[in-house]
Amino acid sequence: MVHTSGSLVSVGALVGDQARAAMLLQLMDGRAYTATELARVAGVTPQTASTHLRRLIEGDLLVAVAQGRHRYHRLASHEVADMLEGILRVADRTPSCTVSASRSMPALRQARSCYRHLAGVHAVAITDRLLGAGHLVPHEGHWQVSVEGAAFLRELGQPLTELLRLPVTVKPARYCRGCLDCTERRPHLAGLVGEAMLDSFVSNDWLRRVEGRRELRLTPPGREALWRLFTLAT
């Protein structure tokens, strides 16, 4: 594929609008939202939101799925999520994920969703423990789960248990990789393994999602589990 300056300008224009940026940041939690919900987030009318969403869909940044009487919007791909996370890492200021923002919103820095996987202080510390124990092994462009690592991670529960029992049918980087954390500037676990780990933590009630926000709240059982499994003092 040949990339041109026009391609970059086109994507930049889509992301660069304040209302569209607010919608995209909301969708970074990995969930799907209606136009009305995204209009509320962006502070615009539903009619204006629909115009913005149509442009994002035409630009292949979002997809819309009809369910019953509603249409739900989500990021079009993991590549779009990676692009947005990359922009956040290099931005001087953003409303949701910078060092300055994390000082005013410490819970966001501690634990949040980075698209569909776990990010923040806890995510980086967990990843450090997994790498240090040899459960994850870095390779060029991706990470591998060792035999011992698979046995350890299966104990975290579903859906991670089931994922690690199945043969790998996707590209290695899609299955397991590091993702540079935008506040900690160090990698946390991403890919299908990272997504399943977050889902397992939520299923275990170790973490709870906050409606309409990327922040994740650590529960008392979660604090005990992170100390027992990863020696994390939370």
Automatic annotation (TrEMBL):
**The name this protein goes by in its record:** ArsR/SmtB family transcription factor
Where in the numbering of this chain does the HTH arsR-type domain appear?
Answer: 1-95
Q: Which GO terms describe its biological process?
A: response to cadmium ion; response to lead ion
Record's Pfam families?
HTH_20 (PF12840)
Question: Out of the domains of life, which is the source?
Answer: Bacteria
Q: What Gene Ontology terms describe what this protein does at the molecular function level?
A: cadmium ion sensor activity; DNA binding; DNA-binding transcription factor activity; lead ion binding
